[in-house]
Amino acid sequence: xxxxxxxxxxxxxxxxxxxxxxxxxxxxxxxxxxxxxxxxxxxxxxxxxxxxxxxxxxxxxxxxxxxxxxxxxxxxxxxxxxxxxxxxxxxxxxxxxxxxxxxxxxxxxxxxxxxxxxxxxxxxxxxxxxxxxxxxxxxxxxxxxxxxxxxxxxxxxxxxxxxxxxxxxxxxxxxxxxxxxxxxxxxxxxxxxxxxxxxxxxxxxxxxxxxxxxxxxxxxxxxxxxxxxxxxxxxxxxxxxxxxxxxxxxxxxxxxxxxxxxxxxxxxxxxxxxxxxxxxxxxxxxxxxxxxxxxxxxxxxxxxxxxxxxxxxxxxxxxxxxxxxxxxxxxxxxxxxxxxxxxxxxxxxxx
Length: 351
Ligand SMILES: [Cu+2]
Prior knowledge:
Signal peptide: 1-23
CATH superfamily: Di-copper center containing domain from catechol oxidase
Keywords: Copper, Metal-binding, Signal
CATH class: Mainly Alpha
Bound molecules: copper (II) ion
GO molecular function, one term: metal ion binding
Protein name: Tyrosinase
C-alpha cells in the first residue's frame, strides 16, 4: 500500500475516532509515580511487570470495530499496536513525535496499573549502559527480562538491510519464546489477523553507533526543541539515524517487529525504549524548565515542512481507553491534573 493511501485511510479513521465518545479516566493518585531503569528493579518487580504485560495481552480488545476487515485487533495489547499503526504517518518525523509517544506509553502504563493490578511505574531502558555490548543487556535476559535475539535469517542485501544485523527469526528464549501468535497485526500497516511470533534482529553495531552516551549528550546539548527533536529522530536513513532509530533498528533490525515503523509496539521492549526517549526529553526540558515546558515546533505530517507547525494545541489521541488531549496537556510529566501525565524519573541525563 502506498504512503498516500495509508495517509487517506488514517484521515478517515482519525475523523471517526474523533466522533466517538470516549469514557473519562478513572480517578488516580496525584503523586507522580517513579519510573526506574529496568536493571535496578528487583527480580519480583521485573516479574510483576512482565506478568502485567502478559495480562494486557490476554484481555479482550475494546476498540470499536472500525472496519470489518480489521480482524487482527483481538486484545487490549492489540488496541495500542493498532492505534500506533493507524497514526503512523502523523506521529513520526513530526513536531509532536515525542509528545504523542509520551502520551502513548503513559496510557500503556495506566492500562497495566488499572486493568492488570500492576503497582509499579513503566520501567525504562537506559541503552547508554548497553551500547558497547548490546547482547549482554539485562533487558534481553532469558529469565528476568524480555528474552533475546532470534536465529540469523539471511535477507537480500539492499536498502532495508540494517547494518550489522545478526538475527531475524523468532525469539528462542524469554517469556514469548515458542509462541506463534504473540503478534496479531502487521507487518507494516496490515490489520488482518496474521498470527506471528515475536522476532528480533539485534544489531550490536547499530546500537554502538547510535545509543551511546556521546550521541545522547549531543542530543541533550541542542538548544531549541526543533533541533533537539530532529536529533532524537534523525533522518529516515541508516546512515543518519538518532537515538530513536538506534533503539528500533538496534533491536528490530530488518526483520524484527521493533524495526517496523508501523507495528513496532508489538514488541514489549518498545515501551522501555520510548520511556527512555521520554526521559531524555524530560532531562532536556529540566535544563531550562520554564522555557521548555512550552517549546514545541516541527511539521504536522511526516517530514512535511510545507505545512504548519505542531503547537501546544495539536491534538493527541492514544487509543480507546485514553481521552483526547493536546500537546500542551503532556508537556509537564509531573503535572498530575485531571487529565495528562503523572509520573517522573528516578534519575536524568545531565550535560
Ligand atoms: Cu512510534
